[in-house]
Amino acid sequence: MSKPIYVTMPSLAPLDEYMEILQGVWERGILTHNGPLVQQFEKDFNKILGIKNLVAVSNGTIALQMAIKALELKGEIITTPFTWIATVSSIMWEGCTPVFADIDAETLNIDPKQIEEKITDKTVAIMPVHVFGNPCDIESIEVIAKKHNLKVIYDAAHAVGSTYKNESILKFGDLSATSFHATKLLNTAEGGAVIANNIELHEKLKRIRFFGHNENKDIVEEGFNGKMTEVHAALGLVNLKYYEDVLKDRKSKWLYYRKQLSTINSFAFQELKFGESNYSYFPVIFQSEDKLLKAELTLNENNIFPRRYFYPSVNKYDKILEQSHLPVSEDISRRILCLPLYYKLTYEEINFVILKLTSQLI
Ligand SMILES: Cc1ncc(COP(=O)(O)O)c(C=O)c1O
Question: Quick check: pTM over 0.90?
Answer without folding.
Answer: yes
